[in-house]
Fold Inositol 2-dehydrogenase.
Amino acid sequence: MTVRIGVIGTGAIGRDHARRINQVLSGGSITALSDVNRASAEAVRADIAPDATVFDNGQDLIASPDVDAILVCSWGATHEEYVLAAIAAGKPCFCEKPLATTAEGAKRIVDAEVAHGTRLVQVGFMRRYDEGYVALKKVVDGQIGAPIMVHAAHRNPTVPEAYTTPMAIHDTLIHEIDVFRWLLDDDYVSARVTFPRSCARTHAKLRDPQIVTLVTAKGTVIDTEIFVNCHYGYDIQCEVVGEDGVARLPEPMSIQTRLNATLQNPILTDWKDRFVASYDVELQDFLKAAAQGTASGPTSWDGYMAAVTSDACVAAQEAEGDAIAITYPDRPALYAQG
Amino acid sequence: MTVRIGVIGTGAIGRDHARRINQVLSGGSITALSDVNRASAEAVRADIAPDATVFDNGQDLIASPDVDAILVCSWGATHEEYVLAAIAAGKPCFCEKPLATTAEGAKRIVDAEVAHGTRLVQVGFMRRYDEGYVALKKVVDGQIGAPIMVHAAHRNPTVPEAYTTPMAIHDTLIHEIDVFRWLLDDDYVSARVTFPRSCARTHAKLRDPQIVTLVTAKGTVIDTEIFVNCHYGYDIQCEVVGEDGVARLPEPMSIQTRLNATLQNPILTDWKDRFVASYDVELQDFLKAAAQGTASGPTSWDGYMAAVTSDACVAAQEAEGDAIAITYPDRPALYAQG
Amino acid sequence: MTVRIGVIGTGAIGRDHARRINQVLSGGSITALSDVNRASAEAVRADIAPDATVFDNGQDLIASPDVDAILVCSWGATHEEYVLAAIAAGKPCFCEKPLATTAEGAKRIVDAEVAHGTRLVQVGFMRRYDEGYVALKKVVDGQIGAPIMVHAAHRNPTVPEAYTTPMAIHDTLIHEIDVFRWLLDDDYVSARVTFPRSCARTHAKLRDPQIVTLVTAKGTVIDTEIFVNCHYGYDIQCEVVGEDGVARLPEPMSIQTRLNATLQNPILTDWKDRFVASYDVELQDFLKAAAQGTASGPTSWDGYMAAVTSDACVAAQEAEGDAIAITYPDRPALYAQG
Amino acid sequence: MTVRIGVIGTGAIGRDHARRINQVLSGGSITALSDVNRASAEAVRADIAPDATVFDNGQDLIASPDVDAILVCSWGATHEEYVLAAIAAGKPCFCEKPLATTAEGAKRIVDAEVAHGTRLVQVGFMRRYDEGYVALKKVVDGQIGAPIMVHAAHRNPTVPEAYTTPMAIHDTLIHEIDVFRWLLDDDYVSARVTFPRSCARTHAKLRDPQIVTLVTAKGTVIDTEIFVNCHYGYDIQCEVVGEDGVARLPEPMSIQTRLNATLQNPILTDWKDRFVASYDVELQDFLKAAAQGTASGPTSWDGYMAAVTSDACVAAQEAEGDAIAITYPDRPALYAQG
């Protein structure tokens, strides 16, 4: 069976996902498109999905009998509305980050999905599908004893002037917030932020770098350096220290050369290159579950927990140096852990 | 357009390719199957390709109007016959190694394809699609100056008793023979084989390890260690030395741990794990070209050149220590290099 | 000129230093020995320094006209007394860690040396002489821009029952406390300690691991993991993040093998193996300066600053999670930086 | 006891060794110097060894009652004469490479030392004292099973116009020739040289690179790439393949940085930096044995075997591609292997 996919929001990521569905992955076909900028959707139809219908708006697209499942790739502020509509229609829905722009909004989605009774929503936390993290999780689960500490870094060469201190949480750390919950099978109980002196390359509205310390329910301490003006490259580091040993996220594959008196491997500079392969795996997983009328991968609950934790991290930035407690309701049975 | 694929030979690799076409890749669908053991083809239909027809023989499958393109995955001795039939039918054809069991047979395929006038055949040299080799080629082509030497190793943990000294060429070195022609954009002019003392783990009919030295038309010297009882793992090494520097094939991605007083990365032990991802890329390339009624990737000429070189290497084994000249006709225009 | 050396305290480290002076290094000779256990000193005379005189006590040894310079290797509580006596005698003095068991005691030594007017004391912080740290400092000073963060780890496979939580500072972190001041050419202004859940292998009187966060006057944040029951090996890690890039302390030299499906390098398990070479360099530096009647390397002031910082770190352990300010008087001109 | 050392030849290496003896190592003192250029010896006396006597010639120096042991660091053509004189005088003698400029000359030294009856000569093959090779030998002897193959490279960034094809053997490969005999505890039975096309940076009298294949008595095959215009750095590589696994010579210690989108370690460019530490260990070993009136380390026999093998390698260059047999008399009992 081919899953008929409607894409809401055909900007960079929506267009790229449409290409994936139609040209790379197995089992899906783009049958519907919509965008606030209709010309954008028309262009995707012309270039990638000639058989698709362009809809005036996301709600009509969701309602269409030619759409089995939905990709929500529109502006963040519209995610909640479309995901709720997809749940109401009983259709599987892949939603790019964030699930909603507030914890309350994410909670409304959780409540709606719980009321529906089966999973319909997958949130676009693609790191869980990255080959390196998947291999790391296997080692963490089986070879190094129970985790006690995680040392991580999220480094970006540069950011635009519009990027502010809280965005280091909402746009950047958000990936670590989700992936470490998954990696450790654990939840957060507190957050603390430490600010070294800011680097010379940052600007007035951004304190950079910063170190976020998250403590989990099991007592694991995770310190993550966020440094978005690190200059030298896009670099994601993660070391897990367990009772018996240490495991480390691998560097991306690259060719080692000996040139100009230097043994060298290139470092990526664009985040898109780092996780591009995981988008394929992520969406293939969505297609597979959607063919069964359900969803797998990161849940609405994960999206909600990411929102709750992000809010606490921003509060911790403001409370510079003080720990902020992280609280959340009980996990619904629908999202019971494996 | 979905390319309708017929698979001849549904043993391990044929079955796996059928799964790829139907469950992983985009743009193809298995519509026909055949195998000397009909039950094998029936099983693939049942498990993977319910819409496929099982044919009594490969010739009927090739002739079927429901088949746009063919995968030849049968016993090596039958490859030539099926590939020639596919060419006669004007249908794109992916042929697993070897293209034919003799250089003469491979030459007949080359001649038939040249007579046909456009490319129809892709040979299953999957290493050209391996992420590591692809990245290495890019660096060799652009960063280290013209290549002068290649140091390589092809190590296998163990081989069965049936594996003999010439098989180290035909079944093992065959991959290096092809991939180095592609990597260096060059052809071979001589082969020499040096035998160290054989290892304790080998058996009477296999001298192991051996070192094959190939010299190219441009004067590059390639030494490849073949060691199929190396015991410790499946390990493919390749270092290219150029005018300006050195580049090295990367190790497969793995997780580094610190455990038991050892900093360690696992080494693969099964060759299938090493190149599994490249099979996907290889067949996707085939599907893409087949949709246009042609073929890309490794050519019949490449298959023929591999056969010619293999024969010279086996002669060099017998002439222990002496160099054997490698000769071949001019390259047909159909196979002109990029 | 050969510097005539008297060794006070001939236990493990004193005996080893005597061997260095007489058998490895250039320019020194052991002429005097003393130990509370006279038999220990006699044994060193018999085995290593046949020309040495055994003294009844350290004070007599210091006063001897046959002694040009002193090594203080006795029990920590006696260091202050002997170092003060050496200063009073105007003789160069190498003192093993700690310079004194209290910050006040260390300050008395600083004051005595300042009153003397020239340097006479070198404190045994051998990491400053480690080839890896020396190379790291060169890179930190010249290649990665001004430092902003340091991520470090000090891991030990196991500790005895007698090792308590504060000893993780006084006996373990003390090395990082000194070496980071030197590496960064900076001083500390606050300390904070975070405790993850303790590991299963620790005992009642030791919370292990712990993470100590030191902030420097220049705003650099240093987080050091101390994990003395890490089980897998003795492992010293240090990564410095600067404005332009990152530099990392090298792993100790070891042989990489491919064995048993594992690419592996041994990890040390005994701290003595890690820094053994730096003891030679350290004492050679002492001999060279002592021949000129003075001292170089880590100063009394460095010893005092280490004591002040250690006290703050222990207070930070007790104030779990709260930052403790670190204060100290102005640096005397005698100890002016580079 | 302090060994009184006379140095014959006070050029770069002789001067450096004099510095080592007087300023770094334990147990020796420079008491005599000579050089064909007397001013050179006077300068070393002035700068490094004020207590030394400058002799008119090496023979007088050897005869002096103030000289216990001799360092022969003069021009290669004079080595044989001075070493024979030292043996005649019954004094331990350290001789820089080559022991003699012909195999016959080296054999005369062997015969003289055998006639003397105890060891007096150490040849300056410093690689045997390199920390990396020492660690490699330990692993080769104990962990990877019996060696079967060695893959090695000796790369130099550039050489002067005066450096010719045979010098790649006599001045460059000579180190591998010795160190692999020691590493494998084996002797050579044949040599073959393969020439790839020469690199663009070489000159008329030098074919570069070249690959020398040595076969040992035990059947181990060693291929060594010599590439003295490799441009990118001074790089010594060595991989030993044994019955059970593979071991590799470590890279020299260096600091890994992340800078400018590159993960990088510096590569040395000057051979002196690569083995500087091993000179200290080598000469300390000489001093220790000389204090006992004998010699240890590389023997006259090793120097002779290096000469015999070098001659065969040069013959193999001339016989391009053909194997040249290597023959030598039985090993005298004085040089029996450990």
Remarks:
- The mean pLDDT of chain A is 97.
- The domain at 3-127+277-299 of chain A is CATH 3.40.50.720 (Rossmann fold).
- Chain A touches chain C through 35 residues (CB under 8 Å).
